């Protein structure tokens, strides 16, 4: 067992507890229970062995029963489980032996008054995969809607309500009388039969549309259903099923059929009174939900805007700039509280009806999509070894700081001032992020992509941490630090006051920090960075860089060579070996005199070089994705990608291995096979012994974190023979994050000492030194649109930059 995290919070819709004080979220093969008051995780339901696809909270049978905390969960492992999530405790397990993609339980919602208090069987409707008789049936119809008797722990005979090519989402009406699915351009709606017999006939109808339907929602009290399609339209059918779902009286049904009345908007003589269409969204609709009183309809999609429609008038109200496509909208039993799930792995708790965001449950951000031309410039991940945090780039031009021990987001730093909207074309790529050893300083590099061959800009930025935890402020901007060439690597000196940036243009630059205390209405520290030295080697592209543990040696890769420099005097000390392909990663191995180098290409290689002998110690022909070294030892870990042939046979689908080495020994001390290694990262973390439980009488001082290409991660003790679970004191961890800087010295104080007390108010216009570009028109229009100066000022500055100034007057 290991400490796992980084799971998706938005793989399935969450569910509120009956008192709305808890939110149950499907997270991989567990269900995490969060407090709606604090947004922090309280507990988790563990027992499923595959992805949990549904969670259904048992509603209270009386107002006094709101304190009860029971729920049903379904999973791809083929089991349905019943929990008391207040303890938490598993109460019952039903194994139907087929994967369950979705589950609804209408019986909870439709209980006749005369049946209350009576014992009746509880039925669920599940979307499953038919794993049998695959030779007789086409693979196109292997997904089935089945009925399950939860009271008797079995599926209902061979009753199959419907079959589809792929699993769809089952949606149940708030009244519990209907449930339905979307299937391409059709809506299929079933009427839930009476609970008297499990074999009662189930009637259904089909509604048609001309476009692919993406989401559906039932009205809470009326026979109304809404659907959203791929074009952004919202259709509302009223009076659906008046004929098919009528009583068994054939005469009455015949009368309904004979009535020749106009059905505006209804296609193909569907069983509905009318169909109306609304259109605001520019892309597909992902979210539809009626309010509990049925007066409003909530919709959302790719634009990251929640729209509230008033059904009677069609008037709209908006919650804009959420920043990510919406996936789910969930109402709670408390009418003043709702939740929306977003594609960036965040859940926002909303105060209704004002729709203000109260709390945000922040999961780890998913990897951002990069254009093909920018692939291979790094995965944009950096580890803060002392605080147990990871910094990673996001799609909205931010750097997210995520706690690996507490499995929650800490903060976000806006790197690029852009009005990012979901679905916009990528115009800026954050190519690198680096942190100082103590995590108090950060450097980022970004590339503004050229549009139709015009423009393009490389930018290097330096950041300093504020008094609050991981709230960074910009200190220095350098435009085009290496002319037009892109930056290949950025790394900090161990002392933190020096940074090296290498470029594909054939040079590297060493930047020094000049920190001054500026006297003004308040006293604050100002960090500015200037170029200290420039180096190159035979005009070769510089592809990687690293400082030694004491900072006395700088190693820079010049394609296939390793050059060693004195960073203070900018003197070339030595040149090492010649690899077959360009080196993309350099790392000094702790306090030893060894250097690890990883090269990529047709002949990839992992090699270890001895600094005392200036020669190659050993090497392997491996394709390395990441390298991490422990600070206080000579151990290091390498993430290697496996060939496709071996990953399918020997390692059972796992595409990578983590190799733990001692620098002097080519035989790995430990090997772990992993999945999704492409785009992964490794990092050693220093932990506080008082916050880690002992394993076999020993307290691990260093842990190894592996983050895969989907930003899921595991943290474990690499030196323990048995993979025990790493337990961190949650309470102490959270309090340490909130009180960071009060109990001990961190960040600035750990290097330069405590500053005198000063006011927390910041100047309105902080001064940020910058080095201008030779092409000023590249940066004139940068920034948020509402902060731009008047258009007349911009045009004059732009035109002046294009004109040549003459010193002599023309007669």
Automatic annotation (TrEMBL):
Q: Which residues form the WD repeat-containing protein 75 second beta-propeller domain?
A: 396-655
Provide the protein's localization: Nucleus, Nucleolus
| Predominant cellular place of this UniProt entry's protein | nucleus
Q: What is the superkingdom listed in this entry's lineage?
A: Eukaryota
Q: What is this protein called?
A: WD repeat-containing protein 75 second beta-propeller domain-containing protein
From which residue to which does any coiled coil extend? none
Cross-referenced InterPro entries? Beta-prop_WDR75_2nd, WD40/YVTN_repeat-like_dom_sf, WD40_repeat_dom_sf, WD40_rpt
What is the organism of origin for this protein?
Answer: Hibiscus sabdariffa
Mind listing the UniProt keywords for this protein, alphabetically?
A: Nucleus, Repeat, Ribosome biogenesis, rRNA processing, WD repeat
Database matches in SUPFAM superfamilies: Putative isomerase YbhE (SSF101908), WD40 repeat-like (SSF50978)
The ranges of the WD repeats are: 278-319
The record's Gene3D superfamilies line, in alphabetical order, gives:
YVTN repeat-like/Quinoprotein amine dehydrogenase (2.130.10.10)
Q: Which Pfam families match?
A: Beta-prop_WDR75_1st (PF23869), Beta-prop_WDR75_2nd (PF23769)
Keyword ATP-binding in annotation: no
